[in-house]
Give the backbone structure.
Amino acid sequence: MNGLRKLTDKIKPTFEKGGKLGFLHSTFDAFETFLFVPNTVTRKGSHIRDCVDLKRVMIMVVLALVPAMLFGIWNVGFQHKLAFGLNDWGFWNIVWYGIVKVIPLYLVSYIVGLGIEFVSAQLKGHEVNEGYLVSGMLIPLIVPVDVPLWMLAIAVAFAVLIGKEVFGGTGMNIWNPALIARAFLFFSYPSKMSGDTVWTGGMTRYMAEGTAYASGNGLVDGISGATPLAHPTIEGLQAAGTGFMDMFIGTVPGSVGETSAIAILIGAAILIWTGVASWKIMFSSVVGGLAIGYLGYAAGATDLPGYYQLVMGGFLFGTVFMATDPVTSAQTECGKWIYGFLVGALAVTVRLWNPGYPEGMMLAILLMNTFAPLIDHYVIECSIKRRAKKVKIA
Amino acid sequence: MSNNIYLKKGLDIPISGTAAQITKKVIVPDVVAVKPTDFRGLVPKLLVREGDKVLAGTPVLADKMSQNILFASPVSGTVAEVVRGEKRKLLEVRIKADAQQEHVDFGVRKVSDMTAEQIREALLESGLWPALVQRPYGIIADPQVKPKAIFVSAFSKAPLAASPEFALGDEISDIQTAINALGKLTDGGIHFSLNAENYSGTPFHKLENVIMHTFCGPHPAGNTGVQIHHISPIRKGETVWTVSLLMLAAIGRLFNTGKYNLKRKIAVTGPEAIDPAYVEGYPGISMKDISEFYGSSENLRFISGNALTGTAVGAEGFLGFFDNQVTILREGNEYELLGWAKPVRLSQFSSSRTYFSWLTPKRKYNMDTNLHGGPRAFVLNDVYSKVLPMDLYPVHLLKACLAQDIDKMEKYGIYEVLEEDLALCEYVCPSKIDIQQIITDGISLMLKEMC
């Protein structure tokens, strides 16, 4: 340990202003602060500080995402096995296929995203911000596994540059950067982001070339590869052989990390326990989703009971990991209730009454990100008026 | 009238080094300093020159803006040095104390026979007027103004704060005299806040001519700002005064003995203080006078006040006018390998559950001055209001201060807060933002624009 510190101290001058590699100062600083909590002491204000920092907060979110990621890797292989009838595949075959498909998504996400982060930090002379650790973890989990890597790279670059850096970096952005990446893909390359063939690993390639990775098999008869959202009726789900429990456990096609309610709920428990994400937003979003879900059920817009809406598609993933982004969500406690409710309600509204989009979570969150400052504004105005009244009475 | 107010939000910081309730020594002052920097916004006028003889109570400085506000020497002796900083800003007037202390005689007076005007005059000429702090902004009270009310907090939950019962418990009669005197300066009465957990155990609940309140809750429940917010919030255009118990005792002493006597029990605290305990001394005493509480001053930080809001004065520095606490901390200027990534980090405290210090709620930590991270933009938004028991939106207030938007600062409550009230927000901030500095700048802006 001391050796590592000595080495760092030895090479540090090279990267400081005036040093040979001075232009890489931010990069060096990022790696140094990653390895060591810096030796800076308080200069102003409080002389002692809590030992929690943003790195710790971010790593908690990354940890909370791990169950969804692991399940996603397994499910990618499992869906491939189902689609191509690979009955001899065991657990490790499935996982290996998932790894081969998902790890490249992660590599692209982190290399492109962090690359831009480092360069922009360097240009601005800032410290590299750890916010992208979370965005980079999220992005591969919310795209279809068959998305072409070059598209993902462009989307990530767009998200980091336009979604975040132009506003000034983490903490200043208006929209959730990971969702910006997904929205970019969704509107720029709709054929790769929706439909029936993108959700199962290898199917795109099979459609194009008649062959899929690791398999000479053809598609199994009757496999549609569509997510449950494509046929959101009791009948449709039965025809696809999907039950509520399948969707709860997550053994259905979908974006990489969004399918398993169980894995997401483990993540939610971590986030709520550590206090990193707001349980108010999660709770009210679920309430909003249920409310509109049952309203649609009662009004005959769907024959699925409201609770089905929670486990289908990206509802839960969005609720737990995307809507709760502290930077882009509502900032006031009362505003969080309103914001969360509207996220859930809008997402299900889009699902039930908009024939164009089977899934509404992404758009609901982005829309509510836009309106979050407005919600906060009115919450604060109300609170100030209420207080003024109270003072007058007293 | 008694009033119970329960506050849930806040945090008692578990830092080690509480002062034992014994007076370890009586400091015979050597060199003491009068520091104009103890008072916000003060433009001082020097009234003495190097080599002048002064008594305890002789004015040393005056406020340039209203020259009847005087600042007196706490000891008798000779003016040794006038220390100036950048742009010749006056920092300290150092006074070499005599072996035998002599006081200016202001005459013993009976408060009940005095008018408000006479009381004001007595406080001004004796140099005790600056003990009265005006809200908003935390500046020296304006003698022309009649405040809405006067607020006194009789307890502090700040880290390692001196126990008022131990430090001032035997000065009840002086405090009562001061309350009787100050009561004539306002029509709103003197609001006196006690700690609900110790209501009957404290001698202060016997004080008369005050409006008693009790507060219950973690730090900052003992902050006057928080108490005012719950008793009678400050609206635009209103002024209230606050005064500490410590200063009440000094004011009472002035009337009862005719002397300007700021003698106080000072808690020497902190993880690096050896056998932390109390000493008896004066404001302006040097850190060198408490040298038995630390081995070598190397790599230590000496704070006049508590670890959250105090001023780092250095090993050669002097105790502030309002302070009765010294905190000694170690400078945390070393690297910690993978600190933030360790699953458990037993030697550090965090109020957040991202670490495991919530498992050991009784434990005290040897905290140091390391920042524990790098400065970032605001990211988490709900950590601040969890430690601020006020109906305010701290992040919005801070952003208004940063944007120098006076209308919004007003709306979001700049009149009701001082740095100390948001010190805990700064402590818990994962983005390591200097919140107290932002508030200081905001208040300076208000003072500049509104006066």
In short: Chain A has a mean pLDDT of 85.
